[in-house]
Amino acid sequence: MLQFIVNWLAGTPSFAAPYALAALGLIIGERAGVLSLGAEGFMLVGALAGVAADLELGGYPAISLAVAMLAAAVVSLLFALLVVVLRVNQVIAGLAIVFFCQGLTSLVGTLAGWTNRAIGGLHEVAIWPLSDIPIVGRILFTQNLVVYLTVPIFFAVNNILSRSMLGLRLRSVGENPEAADAVGVSVPAYRLGAVVAGSALIGLAGGYLSVVDVKIWIPDMTGGRGWIAIALVIFARWQPWRALFGALLFGCIEALIPRIAAAGIQLPQYFLLMTPYLATIAVMIWAGLSKFGRSNEPAALGQPHVREERR
Amino acid sequence: MLEQAAHPAPPPLSLTVGRAHALRFGRINLEVRQSIPAWRQALILAGAVITGMAISAALLIAAGVKPRALLDEFVVETLTDSENLHSILFQAAPLIFVGVGAAVAFRVRFWNLGIEGQMIWGGIAATFVAFYEIGPPVARLPLMMLSAVLGGMAWIMVPTWLRLRLRVNEIITTLLLNYVALNFLLHLVYGPWLDPKDAFPHSPQFHSYERLPEIGWGLSSALVMALVFTALAAWLVQSTRFGFYTRFVHDNPRMALAVGVPIKAVMLISVLLSGGLSALAGFVIATAQEGRLTQSFFEGYGFSGILIAFLARNNPIAAMIVAVLVAVLFVSGRSLQVFCQIPFAMVQLIQAIIVICVAASEFLMRHRLHWVR
Amino acid sequence: MVAALKLVGVRKSFDGFLALDDADFAANTGEVHALLGENGAGKSSLMNVAAGLYTAEAGRLFVDGEEVVLSGPRDAMACRIGMVHQEFKLVKPFTVAENVLLANWRGRFAPGVREVERQITTQAAELGFAIDPRSRVDELSIAERQRVEIIKVLLAGARILILDEPTAVLTDEEAVRLLTTVRTLAARGAAVVLVTHKLGEVTAFTDRVTVMRNGRAVAVLDSRSTTANELTQLAVGTTVAQPRRASSPPGAPVMTVKGLRAARADGHVTVTDATFHVRAGEIYGIAGVGGNGQTELVEALTGVRAPLAGSVELDGTGDTTGSPAEALRDLGVASIPADRFGYGLAGGLSVADNFCVGQMHKGCYGTWLRTDSAAMRKATGRAVGEFDVQGVRNLRQKAALLSGGNAQKLIIAREFSRDPKVIIAHSPSRGLDVRACAAVQERLLSARAGGAAIVLISDDLDEVLNLSDRIGVMTRGRIAAEFAAPADRQAVGRVMVHHA
Q: What's the gap in Å between the CA of A287 and the closest CA on chain B?
């Protein structure tokens, strides 16, 4: 029993990482007022780009992940142009971008022959001697590099958002773009920057999934994680550390599924696969019931900004 | 006091003027338009669609399709080949259902992205009636249809109730429920409903009286059903008081509330209709096309529905026409897949490109650009 | 002497509507210069050009005699022009210091905040009030937020200060304090432009006044040597007669509100304990500056949001607390909302649709199965003529194309054609020019003569004093005191300030 729990918790951070990174990327964009429904698409692009780089550039995980981030950032530029410059409705643009990315990645993956080819991936790194501590050592100090990096990334982003001028201006753009504009903060520039930077993280999440976790590219492999990340951000009330907590929760749930099968417990397979989605809906219900659920929402989230709108 | 500010000295004013001269091209000023004539809207829309198609054509050529083959497939074959025409009309029926279904929901600002899930439940509910042989053979098909509609409506009630009662955003809930429905479907076709004859993941074949009949000229009654429901939806939206109210819910929900429009009732009915129509799409595919419940019959219809509703501006009759055009895309996409080895994902990509172009073109409709100085 | 701020020949249009038509303006250092005009004259637009928010199509801008071209608000700040807008440009969840820091960046964040906090305290003390730089903006009162805006602009180095209708949101006493502060600033070497439509302020607190009408400056006068009548004549063009209120004995109470408690959407309680009643044939005016619960009170009375506690009783029906809007409308309650295009009309739908939606459920325009467009058009056409809604070329045009005044007339047409028993009018003349104002007030008075009970909620004290038979003063969510007409303005003002 103990072994079961230890194995389960040890697997959790690896499952939680993509959720955490994607949620963080979304938070950056949403704090600037841009609702990025394209997350699922950017994750897919990151996943494909990561595998492609791995296959074509010699199999160095660091480079593959960097390419994943870059590719997602480039595609998000299209989304950002639509939403920030052309003031397209953010829901439509987000949905269109997701389907665009789904189609594009399926197409390119098949045509370039990157589909269904296994790659090396990234191994776990044990932080000796901490990893030798019974139970805790296995869970906390025997993970792969990206999982370890997630924590400093969270620190960095949280610091920038709440304790720097850059973060102050970014948040002002998301709360009251008229106020920001009136003091000379360029609303389009900050929104564009936030979307692209956030999408790089989302791409990293996708790249992690394909390069480090599953070690292969299959069309539509993200399986709705982008949407779950969007729900996570609402649950986390747009705060990075709460998002990390939520990601760990989902990582827990997802890590449980293979453990149950491995332990020989017989539960209907497809019902188990439903659990992350049902859990997300439960989380959204909880957020809806909770009185403080919406009070932290960036006030201008989802609204385009035009300077000379005559009232 | 005014000089106290430790703020860095502002640039001398002459510099500001100098900068202006250097900016020879002046500034582009963005202004929101109050209105735009309908013909100009139509022109911009048409231009956007053509641009989208041009970009898609360029992509296809880059992927290795010969331009000649492209022209052949999409234009010539469509208009001349009678078998192709039949395929298109056959394919159009479920597309009309999802397109009109999406439009009916979007009209009240309910983002029904769960079309595929509702289709799945439509198929499951219909198959349930067939599998357990409920009702005499004469009534079997109508019962299947009723069951499908109820299944779709029940499935869409979950996110609707969450939205109306708990203000939970329906975009995520409807989408995630798709995955739940999919997993349940897989559970059924890989498990209790697996066809014992060939052990493939689909249900046993329907009897002949459980399939939608053809009505002559090689056309399926599914198409007639689609046309009937479209006419019903159009009547509902244009001529009834219900349709009148939906216009207010769409344009200004706060005002609608203040003025006494029964918003919740209007939304509820619209959404249920949407769920029912999507379920009928599933019913139609299962009974007219596949003849059984399969594991991926719904793929591609979710976004297609959204695309159709978006291009048709939520108008049911326009949605019907756009659905036929999307059917052309589907059929041509399939033959491109067979003859030129282009994956079917290309169809999804083309649809997304067209939506992006049309959405981007709305910028020109809603704003005006001024060249200043 | 060279003018601190000078605008020459400014031209600006919004999608075909000419807001500024060759407008000129000049203000000198050390003076308080009023920019007077009625709503829609172009005052705010002209100053938005000066502040770099709008780009003029033609015209030139001079600061201290040198021509400048502004490509945005930052250029205006560089030219030492600072503007305090009617709708404050403050980020509500941020603290005062963070808001000021946003406008005056000083390198790194943490040291910047400390320094800004110090400067805010010093600046505020010099101006004679206290502000805690660590408090969040959404916890401050409106008057306090305005002070933050002024400090923000001063700390950015503004020498040319533009205040857009600053006293609209203040009580009389707060307004006096603000205008005194403004005089101090001018005395210390700033050029202050006061955009206003209140004549009293012009004559009492300013040095010179520029009068604008229809997008042009029609006169520049010395404030002390002009009269209210002369200014009105210049601003309006003709004199518009003030609607006269005939005295008539009121009837029995029609609506009684007891102990009403209501909150905003986010749960913040703004109406704490409202108690009053209105009688048939009388206008009950609720005075008070915005932010004291007026909006939530209107929402509770019109059925948009259910109150938390208390009761609303309608004569002949009994307790209607918490009834939804549909039910209240059926019982004869009509509402004229403050936000015309937000709550009163569906801009994207036709004029006919907007008019008929009120009575649609009664079956006047067809059954559930078929709406009768011909009947709709006929009724709308009749109403448009009767209520003098102008600018309607055809009944199918979108309601968003109507001007503010005509939109209000359409709303009134819709609401009044049902012969309502109770009318809840929330800031009905806000943003309207004098003619439209008078028309709206005429309608209210004639409804009153017809026996309706009217609740008039407005932050324009003059309007409330002119029209009401009885006045209740609303502060901090309660009706603090009631007066009968004719009420003493000073007495009313005292209650408004005394936040008990």
A: 8
Confidence (pLDDT) at B20:
34
pLDDT of residue B194: 87
Instruction: Establish, for the pair of chains A and B, how many residue pairs have beta carbons separated by less than 8 Å.
Output: 135
Look up residue B192 and give its two tokens: 């209790």
Residues C228 and C291 in one domain: no
Which pLDDT does position A116 carry in this prediction?
Answer: 83
The H or E element spanning position C118 is: helix C109-127
Cβ neighbours of residue C3 closer than 8 Å, sequence gap 6 or more: C26, C27, C28, C62, C65
How long, in residues, is chain A? 311
Does residue C483 lie within any of the structural domains?
Answer: yes
Sheet containing strand C333-336, edge to edge, reads C318-319, C309-314, C253-263, C269-279, C478-484, C470-475, C283-287, C453-457, C422-426, C333-336
Chain A positions touching B171 (Cβ under 8 A) are: 37, 91
Cβ of A184 within 8 Å of Cβ of C110? The answer is no
C98/A contact by beta carbon, under 8 A: yes
Can you point out the beta strands (E) in C360-500? 422-426, 453-457, 470-475, 478-484
Q: Do residues C231 and C267 both lie within one domain?
A: no
DSSP labels, B174-200 = HHHHHHHHHHHHHHHHHTTT--TTT--
Instruction: Give the A window 169-198 contacts with C, CB below 8 Å.
Output: 169, 171-172, 175-176, 178-185
* A-chain residues near C14 (CB < 8 A): 308, 310
SS3 track for B243-283: HHHHHHHHHCHHHHHHHCCCHHHHHHHHHHHHHHHHHHHHH
pLDDT over 70 (residue A120) = yes
C352: in domain = no
Q: Is A167 within 8 Å of chain B by CB?
A: no
Say which DSSP state A224 is in: T
Instruction: For residue C342, give the chain A residue with the closest CA.
Output: A311
Low-confidence ranges of chain C (pLDDT < 50): 500
The interface predicted TM-score (ipTM) is: 0.88
Please report, for residues B116, B327, C401, C456, the alpha-carbon distance to residue C336 in angstroms, rounded to integers and kept in the order given: 44, 49, 19, 10
What range does the domain containing B182 cover?
Answer: 74-341
CB contact under 8 A, A308 and B180: no
Quick check: B255 and C342 in contact, CB under 8 A? yes
Residue A2 to residue C126: CA distance in whole angstroms: 69
Any CB–CB contact under 8 A between C145 and chain A? no
B93 lies in the same domain as B179: yes
Chains in contact with C, where contact means 3 or more Cβ–Cβ distances below 8 Å, are A, B
Give the list of residues 6+ apart from residue C139 with CB closer than 8 angstroms, or none.
Answer: none
Q: CA of C331: which chain B residue's CA is closest? A: B260
Whether residues B321 and B362 share a domain: the answer is no
Q: Say how many domains are in chain B.
A: 2
Residues B211 and B299 reside in one and the same domain: yes
pLDDT (0 to 100) of residue A295: 64
Banded model confidence at residue B24, pLDDT cuts 50, 70, 90: very low
> A305 lies in a domain?
no
DSSP C467: H
Instruction: Note whether C85 and C175 are same-domain residues.
Output: yes
Q: Provide, as residue numbers in chain A, all residues whose Cβ is less than 8 Å from the Cβ of B180.
A: 274, 277-278
Nearest to B178 by CA among B98, B61, B287: B98
Range of the domain at C152: 5-236
Mean pLDDT, rounded, for B245-270: 92
Question: Residue A294: its pLDDT value, please?
Answer: 56
Asked if the model's pLDDT at residue B269 lies above 50, the reply is: yes
As a whole number, mean pLDDT of residues B260-264 equals: 90
For residue A306, tell me if it sits in a domain.
no
User: Could you tell me if B367 lies within 8 Å of chain A, comparing CB atoms?
Assistant: yes
Cβ(C263)–Cβ(C308) under 8 Å? yes
The two tokens of residue B48 are: 């956007």
Same domain, B354 and B311: no
* CATH number of the domain enclosing C419: 3.40.50.300
- Segment B265-285 shows an average pLDDT of 95
